[in-house]
Design goal:
The structure is a homodimer. By secondary structure, the first copy, chain A, is mainly α. Chain A has 7 helices and no strands. Chains A and B meet through helix 1, helix 2 and helix 7 of A and helix 1, helix 2 and helix 7 of B.
Chain lengths: ~140, ~140
DNA sequence: ATGGCACTCATACTAAAGTACTAAAATGTC
DNA sequence: GACATTTTAGTACTTTAGTATGAGTGCCAT
């Protein structure tokens, strides 16, 4: 917040300066009016783009990004979370086992634990819950 | 594309007009230079914002919204698509059957057809594919 | 060093999911 | 009305998924 105010202040100051400089330069005859107008136009054009980007970036980005806080709160271990991600990719237990160089037994154990911790009855429900919680 | 070119052309024309008008108005003495500069600054400021918003809206908005074209292209029937959505909600065949007042047999038939048409081996993979295709 | 925890794996089941095929209504189209 | 789809449903299996339980290993913190 303080940073925003400071940036704004500096910007306005710089612009007023540009304003005055161009005004007196024109009166003094050392600067053509077209150039002054073009310079002002260009500067404000980019200021508009800059400010717009600033305000948009704070309202459009938060639809994704994973929530590590919730993963901890659910007490999901590293392996369990890893398996959960593979489930969401649509892999079978066999395929996950091969991918992670483990046996299907181990994967089943992890899956069971994930379902318990996410309070899901099926892996498809686990996917839905995980997405709702923004942990995948 | 043609629309974009047209908009751009009109904008540039309008700006050149503003440019010339302000220049001659100042020379004629009917307009103070400060006002001309302020006007140009304001216009370009908003043009900057406008153009920026245009370019961003085409890169940030499309993360959602379903693609009915693809649903048709995949030849998914109404029922099959309905079942697919329930699968994505994490329901079992039994639960889907109860929800749609059908038997589990019927749901299995639909599910098998959905898997075939989406080229998926499992329902979890069907979810992943459907999301990638933006049909759910 | 030891008790706790995460990770690994196994066996033995039970329960879902998925396949293959068949077939009768229901629906919409020409 | 005839024809093509869609929707519904069934039987009979095969394959995955999921549960329960036990147990060995490695790691880390007290």
């Amino acid at each position: 917040m303080r940073k925003t105010v400071l940036t704004f202040g500096l910007l306005i100051l710089a612009l007023l300066l540009l304003f005055q400089v161009s005004k007196y330069a024109i009166i003094g005859g050392s600067l053509r009016m077209e150039y002054a107008l073009a310079a002002v136009a260009l500067v404000f054009f980019f200021v508009g783009i800059y400010l717009n980007k600033k305000s948009l970036s704070k309202k459009h980005l938060p639809p994704n990004k994973i929530d590590r806080q919730k993963i901890m709160a659910l007490e999901l271990s590293k392996r369990e979370y890893e398996v959960l991600k593979e489930i969401a990719l649509g892999l079978s237990n066999r395929e996950i086992a091969d991918k992670l160089f483990l046996t299907e037994s181990t994967i089943k154990t992890h899956v069971s634990n994930v379902l318990l911790k996410l309070n899901a009855k099926r892996r498809t429900q686990a996917i839905q819950i995980a997405k709702a919680l923004q942990i995948i």
